[in-house]
UniProtKB/TrEMBL annotation:
Pfam families: DinB_2
InterPro entries: DinB-like (IPR024775), DinB/YfiT-like (IPR034660)
Domain of life: Bacteria
Residues covered by the DinB-like domain: 37-165
Protein name, UniProt field: DinB-like domain-containing protein
Amino acid sequence: MNENLIPKEGEYAPYYGKYIEKIIGQDISKLLLNQIEEVRRYFESKGEESSGTAYGPGKWTAKEVLNHIIDTDRVMTFRAMCFARGEKASFPGFDQDIYVANSDANQVPLMNLLEDFEMSRYALVSMMKTLPQESFTRFGNASGHEVSVRALFHIMAGHTLHHLTILKERY
């Protein structure tokens, strides 16, 4: 395990601690890739029709949750790349509810969503392999909080684990 990849407290907003705590100490690159198969297994067991349903009124469907994971990965990956390259501009937050509402995820075939998740994860891990080691400890500002590049990678993996747990428990 590369110690340079493990974020420390203070490298992310306290809100994200619940995601990072779930996966701290794991090989983050391997975890990000292993989640591809875990997500695929879950959704293939649910099937197309069941994935378009929510567990309650006003809740996202399973497909919308998957699309939300993909959107979050993309936003966090963009932030990580920018901060790794030394970007000093502050990045705004993003309203996940607006993103989900405008995604039309329930109209996208499940296999397309799964492929999108897989490809975006491969691109993320590929980027991680090409970043200079010193860039993992660089910081930027997103949503009004300082965050390190390595914390962003952990946030993505922990966020996915968080939603997988909810999917398995409630859907």
